[in-house]
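Example (one chain per record):
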Amino acid sequence: MDLAFNSQLNCDASSDTVPPAARLGLWVRFCLSWGCPSFSATHIISHMIKPQGITFECTKPEIPPPTKGSGCKLCPWDWLLHGNKCYWLSKESKDWTRSRDHCLGKSAQMLVIQNQEEMDFIQDVTQGSSYIWIGLTVTPAGGKWTWVDGSPLDPIFQVSGSAEGNSCGWIRGSRIQSETCGAEFKWICQKEAAVI
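Predicted structure:
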């Protein structure tokens, strides 16, 4: 995970033989730039960089308790943060099932659009992209559009196209379309942002 913030910390490697490149590595850069006004106690983050066998520890001095609702939100490297979610956009194409499985392999799920504001955000980040799979499919039993988290499609969103048993949802711009799940498109994964 690559995390970026704006403050200073004390960051020491556990070895005196740390090469300069490792000192500028991912976690050291994180330690040197990490900071949020919402920390209420001393925080220690340790991470073992396995190839070099080096442990870095980052500490931040105690700061007064945060106000309710404040906090830093973190996403893994190459994910986009928006609201309380992290989003990852694929660069390759797969069918809907393999796209869903890829998201699960990232401890995430395919995109579940909860409201128009989130749809607008997705539209902004996918501008110019081809068709993008989202976590929307037709349930075999009822023939209803259902998100991968089990929730029904909100009536504010309309799906153009077939709602038959092997139909999955994709977006381009602000339109949700139906396609057979075997078609190959890019996809979007999402997960909750970590709050520290």
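Caption: Helices lie at 20-23, 26-33, 96-105, 116-125.
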